[in-house]
Amino acid sequence: MGENLDDVGPDPIDVAVGHRIRVRRKWLGISQSTLADHLGVSFQQVQKYERGANRTSASMLVRIAEKLETTVGELVGENDRPTGDESLFEKLAVPGAVQLLEAFASVQQPSLRTAILNLTRSLIEETEEPAQKRAR
């Protein structure tokens, strides 16, 4: 029998569009509820769009782009140019990433920014070491 598409998971294109919606919404400081009210859907539906769990129709993309002060082309990645880091949108879509970046950017002292980076790296190393030991 044929493969059931529901078992495969969200289409990577839908996920990428959802990431762009989420990053843009968070960048503008718009809540999921506010966007949902504008679209006439529940905030849970906005969550599904942002995860790529539900496909976003063309008419909905137009309404979303309007509220997020951008174009449908931007949301679908039409204007994306390859960069050194292709996963930037994925990283910015991680919950808290935009807020962390904004907080980091507000730090005025270079030495304090360096200390924050070093602390973050050491925390990551600490969480990776137990995982590597378990894998052995």
TrEMBL record:
Keywords tagged on the record: DNA-binding
Parts of the chain that traverse the membrane: none
Protein name: Helix-turn-helix domain-containing protein
Keyword DNA-binding belongs to the record: yes
UniProt superkingdom: Bacteria
CDD domains documented for this protein: HTH_XRE (cd00093)
Pfam families: HTH_3 (PF01381)
Signal peptide: none
HTH cro/C1-type domain sequence ranges: 21-75
